[in-house]
Amino acid sequence: MVTLPYPLVDLDLAAPLDRHRATVLPEWIDWNGHMNVGFYVVAFDKATDTLCTQLGVGWEYTREKVGMTFVLEAHVTYDREVREGDPLRITTQVLDYDTKRVHYFHTMHHGSDGWVAATNELILMNIDYETRRSAPWPPETYRRLELMAAAHATLPRPDKAGRTIAIKRR
């Protein structure tokens, strides 16, 4: 059984998880005067780090050579532009999970005005550090996933979850 050789943060069962904050940095701005598409993904990736820390599989998990996490798939929607200096608040909802994966949904809000700027839907997989192959979550991580998923089960499924990309014809 894999144990985690480092202290874990107290599990936050808020629905949705609402812990990640950021600010749009000057280097994230493109020639259109708003945040470049790639930096939306960077901001969402930092929110994934926040989720992983909650689950006990954050930076220490890899640093201590216990395991790693890899994103298998990601979908981003861009709803409204954000500009340099704008505060960001990213919430996270667990949609589903199994013994090796978690399916979750980030929503990027303007940090002070509250409107939705973007969304990011992902599937993350647990990886064995030595083999770099998929592996079951550590027991404590799985327990935390169960609790978080149960807390998030009361939330409505995001409208943009499960979308496909296509040009809609009339």
TrEMBL record:
<protein>
    <submittedName>
        <fullName>Thioesterase-like protein</fullName>
    </submittedName>
</protein>
<dbReference type="Pfam" id="PF13279">
    <property type="entry name" value="4HBT_2"/>
</dbReference>
<dbReference type="InterPro" id="IPR029069">
    <property type="entry name" value="HotDog_dom_sf"/>
</dbReference>
